[in-house]
Design goal:
disordered N terminus; mainly alpha; single chain; 61% helix; elongated; 180 residues
C-alpha cells in the first residue's frame, strides 16, 4: 500500500515467469551480465564466475538461472548456444551446465595457455610511473596468486617475491636498500 515491495511467503503466488514465492520476488532484482563472445583473456572466465556468484547471492536454482543466462547472451555467444540448445534443454538441473559446456569449449583457453598467460602477466608486472606503491604490490600479489592457481607446480619463494617486488618497483637503488 505504501509503494514498498513486500516478500510473499514461499509457495504463495507471486506471478511472473518464475512462479511464486521468494524467488519471484528476487528474480526482479537479479542482474545477469551480458556475454557476447569476447575472446580477450579471462573475460569468459570472469563472466562465468559472476554468474555463479549471482546465483549464490540471490539463491537462484540452476534450472532458473539457465533461463536468465540464456537471455543474457548476445551476438556470437547467443548464436552458438541457440544452434545447439532447445527450450526444453534449459529445463532441469543440467540446463546451466549445458550452456557453460558449450561456451567453455569455444571461449575457455586450454590449461597450458592459461598457465602461459599467467606466467606472462607475472613476468611483466612492474610499477608504472606515478602508480601508488600499494596498488603495485596488490597487482604483483594477484599475478603471483593467478600463476600458482594456473600452474600449481610454480614455486616462488618469499625471498624471490620480495626481490622481484623491489627490483620492479621503480625505486632508486639507494631507496631499495632503505627498505631492506
Amino acid at each position: 500500500a505504501n509503494g514498498e515491495a513486500t516478500e510473499q511467503p514461499s509457495g504463495s503466488s507471486g506471478g511472473g515467469t518464475f512462479g511464486g514465492g521468494a524467488f519471484a520476488q528476487h528474480a526482479r532484482h537479479v542482474n545477469v551480465a551480458p556475454f557476447g563472445g569476447d575472446r580477450k583473456p579471462g573475460v569468459y572466465k570472469e563472466w562465468r564466475k559472476d554468474i555463479r556468484v549471482t546465483s549464490l547471492a540471490y539463491k537462484v536454482p540452476d534450472d532458473q538461472m539457465a533461463s536468465l543466462v540464456y537471455l543474457a547472451l548476445r551476438s556470437d555467444a547467443k548464436a552458438l548456444v541457440s544452434a545447439q540448445v532447445e527450450y526444453e534443454d534449459l529445463k532441469g538441473d543440467k540446463g546451466l551446465e549445458l550452456i557453460f559446456s558449450i561456451l567453455g569449449k569455444e571461449y575457455r583457453r586450454a590449461d597450458h595457455e592459461q598457465a602461459d598467460l599467467a606466467m606472462r602477466r607475472y613476468e611483466v608486472c612492474r610499477r608504472r610511473p606515478s602508480q601508488a606503491m600499494e596498488e603495485y604490490i596488490m597487482e604483483l600479489k594477484a599475478s603471483k596468486i593467478e600463476l600458482v592457481r594456473e600452474d600449481p607446480g610454480s614455486d616462488i619463494s618469499d625471498v624471490s617475491m620480495a626481490r622481484r617486488m623491489l627490483r620492479r618497483s621503480g625505486l632508486m637503488l639507494n631507496e631499495q636498500r632503505l627498505v631492506l
